[in-house]
């Protein structure tokens, strides 16, 4: 599950992390990741989904194991898809309740398709 961060709140230990803020038009396959603990990917508006692709590329092709954080226009109904594409934390949009966000994950207990978290599809998991 994604670590939920309320808007305006800093995540614990953020001051100790080496954070790379990746622009939406940047190629995650070419990003310098040496020594990076956290990659921030921005959602400038809810209709811009480039950060989903960037997260998946970082996890699956680059093998990045650090924190991938969603920032910007982060809506509660997008959190499950964010988690499935590789995000590990998200800063909610102003005015969104973290408790509502956590309930979103209880609605979807399992998935048939593979994803960045569990690559095998359901039928292959046994």
Automatic annotation (TrEMBL):
It comes from the Bacteria. InterPro entries: UCP030820 (IPR008318). It holds the Pfam family DUF934. This is DUF934 domain-containing protein. It comes from Ramlibacter tataouinensis (strain ATCC BAA-407 / DSM 14655 / LMG 21543 / TTB310).
